[in-house]
C-alpha cells in the first residue's frame, strides 16, 4: 500500500460554532459521478473537519501544484488538528490545537469555506451522504462551484516522496 500514489489536497471547512475556518490535508479524494458531479473524500472518523462538514454541510477541495509554494503548504497541513492524535506527544504539544490556515492566504467560497490563494484549483461541495467504512467515514459531496487558479501539474505523493497507508 505504501507504493500507491495519491494526490494531495487541502480540504477546507468552517466550524458551526464561532465560524473559525479549518483546513486539513487529504489524499483519499476522487470523482465518483459525472451527472451530477460528485466527489468522495475519506476522513478519519475522529476528524475535526468531518465534524465541521456534518454541521455546516459544505467543504472545499483545494488542489495543490508540484511547486515549492505548494510543498511548503503541504508540510504545514501534515499536522493533525489536535496534538493528542500523535502517539507519544506529551505536555503542551499533546494539548495543542493546530489552526493550519492561520497565516495562510485564502478567500472564502460562496458557502463560506476557504479557497487557498496558493492552490492550483479548487471546488466547493455540498454534503450529499456519508458512509462509515472501517476507521474512516466516506463523504460524498455534490460539486457546486470551482475554478482553476494557475496552470500546473497536480501534486502527488510520488512528487513529495511521502507515503500514506495507515
Give an overview of the whole structure.
The chain has 166 residues and is an alpha+beta fold. The protein has one domain (9-160): Electron Transport, Fmn-binding Protein, Chain A (Pnp Oxidase, Chain A, Roll). The protein has four helices and nine strands. It has helices at residues 48-56, 68-77, 91-95, 157-160; strands spanning 9-14, 21-26, 29-33, 38-44, 58-63, 106-108, 114-116, 121-133, 136-148. Strands 2-1-5-8-9-4-3 form a seven-stranded antiparallel β-sheet, covered by helices on one side. Strands 6-7 form a two-stranded antiparallel ribbon. The chain is globular. 30% of the residues are buried. The model has no long low-confidence stretch (mean pLDDT 87).
| Widest sheet, order of strands | 2-1-5-8-9-4-3
Question: What is the CATH fold-level name?
Answer: Pnp Oxidase, Chain A
* Main sheet: strands, sense, barrel: 7 strands, antiparallel
Instruction: Tell how many strands the DSSP assignment holds.
Output: 9
How much strand content do the residues show?
Answer: 35-45%
Q: In the CATH hierarchy, what is the architecture at level 2? A: Roll
The CATH superfamily label reads Electron Transport, Fmn-binding Protein, Chain A
Tally of distinct domains: 1
Tell me the structural class.
alpha+beta
What does the radius of gyration come to? 15 Å
- Element-level helix/strand string: EEEEHEHHEEEEH
Question: Would you tell me the overall average pLDDT?
Answer: 87
| Poorly predicted runs of 5 or more residues | none
Q: Give me the number of helical elements.
A: 4
Q: What fraction, in percent, of the residue positions are helical? A: 10-25%
- What distance lies between the first and last C-alpha atoms, to the nearest angstrom? 9 Å
The coarse overall form would be: globular
